[in-house]
Design brief:
Chain lengths: 773, 155
């Protein structure tokens, strides 16, 4: 056994001792000879030559200024290409008064970044921006103090631009940031709220600039990482190699839940260097040559336990959700806390209604289906574990690796590298923990890469649900009572963090205890009804250990499920009452910001009021237009879809989208538009194509033929985006919010085109043909 | 069982002693350390592994290395540089195409092979040429803009 296993240090102890790790590969180099910094008379702005410990309360944990004045931000989140890296660089440059080009970021290397939760919940700018803005503002304040001492002029008589501090009254008297602190450390303590992850909050004494003074924030800088990707110079986690490395491929059971009974090692003997590694129920093949590892995985003969097929017929999935016992419920998602479900008031109001409208909407399991299946590399050397991972939460991977190996947290370093997709809790963290276990077992660095069939067959899934909507109308045609109720699989079979082996596939295969974690969601919008209730009930997973249908966060968790129901139902109610769907929404909204977004989308799309489906025809095609609106964590989005349906084949084409988007202060309008476009296209793919298929033995969506996603013939002709900038309001996030209104906007457009409605996703040609009769 | 196979990659002759059945993808990545053809599916369903072989966009994940013997192969590293970008690369940068970027190799190489043969493609032909490529992040709008832009540049 490796001696690492004898060490066991808790997370709290780690935090105390976190400074022990000093990594030399970062942008700040130690100054020659460790000369004493020039610290005389600058109070809290003292500089130091020796890096202070990596603590959340240290300014040096977030920012460094190199000898030439280059600024490095150490960012405990990542960017999957949605402009976060560029936007954070803009924010840092803005607060520091340096040029945009002089700032770069190191993201989610646990040796040099504080755990800010990784990527999650569209918080890159919303949360990460505040953290880095506060750090940069404080750094500027400290630099001005240093300059004040150097130049003998009060700090408020100084001005900064492009990293040069000048005396306002005599600009010839100047000193650069590089000269003040270049390659030394700030050694300044920040106010820290004693929390890590999403709750991490730090601030210095400095007050950040008001938005009215912004020169760089709000400008459409091009994405910094794009050229590297287009010239083939970006190194992905799949491209990482270490000397002596073994390639591994995982072996999965043909029937979900089956465990290995015996393994025929001789079945791969002909493949040079290939061998089996088995730890409890986890089986892999490893080989020095990748192709031999791939072939070994195909050839390996395993006898699996004879288990009862765990899944119902797929055709009965939604009936199962309706009937299965309830294991959890809440009136809201759990991020808002536990709220008891009280049916009393809404039932009383339904009882008084002149008319009841009830509808059900069905959402399938969906897969992260990343462009390449997960890859990770782990190396154990000199008592240290290093894991290179594509997980969007490298700090969680670090904790998970330490836990699955039973080693001290401070002996583990996780390094995020660009990876094929992410979109929430995909299988990247599973692969990282597998790599760590295999590196321990083989004594060699191990690169694990999943195969395509695992990328949709074994990733954590977005949960399936049946959403039940009910409204009570009075005689005058007003909605007097409104209820949303979801019957669904919990979205938390495994957590969005990989920090506990129980939340990972390898952890479950090694016998980690099974957790029961219940959560789903409710619609998010500004609608007001006299009496309203929104709640969910979850049912038990179909298989509780190592299930290919285990659920976790998939981009905009539960947003598409809940809003598909609530926004389709808004249209159903509008038409039921003979009111235009845009007008109907506005009637139930008091918030001026929400109303402005809906009006902006309607106006830009040339919305024509209608009180019944228009069923228009253009060149033999059925054409329609529909709206979807929703909020997410403060961001407001209205989307109008124009859909064209071929009546012969039933093929729908979402030809055009018009999107109005208010996420508060806009940091970079070009990359915001790019992000919205990506969300709309991915959400269109999910609405029209995506459904994880399974039989009673296992998932049967195992490649791009059995889990199709949108391709170029189905790409919209146009996505017209109206950005509403609110410089006075904080940035509320854009990574996910424009996802959730897409499916209902398309459903509502299909209704406008055909006069009939689909209440089950995805909207396949077969289902549309069925509507048309 | 290993066999000597030679071909030209980005203008340079390379000789490999490999299992002739090994997919070209693994030979490029692991023997020649040319990492830009990516493993996406191993089934020729996504295009991430695309190289240009004798002028044709070719899925290296299902092409045995033996089938590449004597051929001229181009990978994305061989197309252009920041100082001298290929028009397709320049267009992909101008349109800020990639999100995660893992698929980009396939789109750039497929578009390059098609536009070098005929830059005067109609919108329908562009969409048809690129059908069969996957992008999970949803960068397709920018992909199409970039290919239209490159086509104009190359016509």
């Amino acid at each position: 056994m490796n001696k690492l296993t004898s060490m066991n240090v808790s997370r709290r102890q780690f935090l105390k001792g976190a400074g022990a790790l000093v990594i030399s590969s970062v942008a700040v180099s130690e100054p020659a000879g460790r000369a004493l910094a020039q610290t005389a008379g600058v109070g809290t702005g003292a500089t130091a030559s020796i890096k202070p410990p990596l603590l959340p309360s240290q300014l040096d944990s977030y920012l460094a200024i190199g000898a030439e004045g280059r600024v490095t931000g150490f960012f405990g989140k990542i960017d999957m290409g949605q402009g976060v890296e560029t936007g954070i660089a803009q924010i840092i440059a803005e607060e520091l008064d340096v040029s945009f080009d002089s700032v770069s970021l190191v993201m989610c290397d646990t040796a040099v970044t504080i755990d800010a939760g990784g990527a999650s919940n569209s918080m890159g700018i919303r949360h990460g921006g505040i953290m880095m803005r506060n750090a940069a503002a404080e750094a500027r304040r400290v630099l001005l103090e240093l300059a004040s001492a150097r130049l003998g002029v009060a700090a408020d008589a100084l001005a900064v631009s492009d990293g040069v501090v000048r005396v306002q009254a005599d600009p010839s008297r100047a000193v650069t940031y590089a000269a003040l602190i270049g390659s030394k450390y700030f050694n300044v303590t920040l106010e820290w709220n004693k929390q890590l992850g999403f709750a991490l909050d730090i601030k210095g004494k400095a007050k950040p600039k008001p938005a009215s003074q912004y020169k760089l924030v709000g400008k459409p800088y091009p994405a910094v990482e794009v050229p590297g990707k287009v010239f083939g110079r970006t190194r992905y986690v799949t491209d990482m190699r270490r000397p002596g490395m073994l390639h591994a491929r995982m072996i999965r059971p043909p029937v979900a839940g089956a465990v290995p009974v015996s393994v025929d090692a001789a079945s791969i003997r002909a493949l040079r260097g290939a061998r089996v590694v088995q730890v409890k129920d986890l089986i892999a093949v490893v080989a020095p040559d990748e192709w031999n590892a791939v072939r070994a995985a195909r050839q390996l003969k395993v006898k699996w336990s004879d288990v009862k097929p765990p899944f119902p017929d797929m055709a009965s999935l939604y009936d199962h959700l309706r009937r299965a016992p309830t294991v959890g419920e809440n009136a809201g998602d759990l991020f808002g806390g536990k709220v008891a479900v009280n049916e009393g008031p809404v039932e009383a109001a339904f009882a008084k209604a002149a008319r009841i409208v009830e509808r059900e909407y069905e959402h399938p399991f969906q897969s992260h289906a990343c462009m390449g299946p997960a890859c990770a590399l782990a190396e154990i050397a000199d008592g240290k574990v290093t894991v290179w991972t594509g997980s969007q939460k490298a700090h969680s991977v670090r904790e998970g690796v330490a836990a699955i190996l039973g080693v001290a947290l401070e002996s583990v370093r996780a390094v995020w590298m660009p990876s094929p997709g992410s979109y929430g809790r995909n299988e990247a963290g599973d692969a990282a923990l597998e790599a760590a276990v295999l590196a321990r077992e083989t004594g060699r660095p191990v690169r694990v890469q999943w195969m395509r069939h695992e990328g949709t067959g074994w990733d954590p899934k977005g949960p399936a649900g049946v959403m039940q909507m009910k409204a009570g109308l009075d005689a005058a045609g007003n909605v007097i009572a409104y209820r949303f109720k979801a019957r669904a699989f919990s979205s938390w079979d495994v957590s969005s963090r990989e920090s506990d082996p129980s939340d990972t596939l390898p952890g479950m295969l090694l016998g980690a205890p099974i957790k029961s974690q219940q959560n789903f969601g409710v619609p998010s919008n500004a609608y007001q009804f006299p009496v309203a209730l929104a709640y969910w009930q979850s049912v038990a997973p179909l298989l509780d250990r190592a299930s290919p249908l285990r659920t976790a966060h998939l981009r905009d968790p539960q947003g598409p499920q809940c809003q598909f129901a609530s926004e389709s139902f808004m249209d159903e109610l509008a038409f039921e009452l003979g009111v235009d769907p845009v007008e109907f929404r506005l009637r139930h909204i008091k918030s001026p910001r929400d109303a402005a977004v809906i009006r902006a989308a309607a106006q830009k799309a040339g919305w024509e009021a209608r009180t019944r489906p228009r069923m228009q025809r253009r060149g033999g095609m059925l054409v329609g237009q529909g709206i979807g609106y929703a909020t997410r964590q403060g961001t407001i989005v209205a989307t109008i879809a124009e859909v064209e349906i071929d009546p012969k084949s039933g093929r729908p084409w979402a030809r055009k989208f018009t999107v109005a988007h208010d996420c508060g202060l806009i940091v970079n309008p070009a990359l915001l538009k790019k992000t919205i476009e990506g969300n709309i296209v991915m959400a269109t793919s999910r609405a029209l194509f995506e459904e994880v298929k399974f039989d009673n033995r296992n998932v049967t969506s195992l490649d791009w033929a059995s889990y199709p996603i949108l391709e170029t013939p189905d790409v919209p002709e146009d996505i017209d985006i109206v950005l509403i900038d609110r410089p006075e309001s904080p940035s509320t996030g854009a990574g996910e919010p424009s996802t959730r209104q897409v499916a209902p906007a398309i459903a509502n457009a299909i209704f406008d085109a055909t006069g009939t409605r689909l209440r089950r996703l995805p909207f396949t040609p077969e289902r549309i043909k069925g509507l048309l009769g | 069982m290993a066999k000597r196979i030679s071909f030209e990659v980005n203008g340079r002759t390379r000789r490999l002693d490999v299992d002739p059945d090994m997919p070209l993808l693994y030979a490029l990545r692991n023997v020649l350390a040319l990492d830009n053809p990516k493993f996406g599916c191993g089934l020729a369903q996504c295009g991430a592994c695309t190289v240009i072989m004798n002028g044709e966009a070719t899925r290296s994940c299902v092409t045995p290395v033996s089938a590449a013997a004597g051929s001229k192969i181009r990978t994305i590293e061989g197309l252009g540089t920041p100082d001298k970008p290929h028009p397709v690369q320049a267009a992909f940068i101008a349109e800020s195409v990639p999100f995660c970027g893992y698929c980009i190799n396939g789109w750039v190489m497929t578009a390059t092979a098609a536009l070098e043969k005929n830059p005067r493609l109609s919108e329908a032909e562009i969409r048809q040429t690129l059908a069969g490529l996957k992008c999970r992040c949803g960068s397709h709008m920018a992909m199409l803009r970039a290919v239209r832009r490159a086509a104009k540049e190359m016509a």
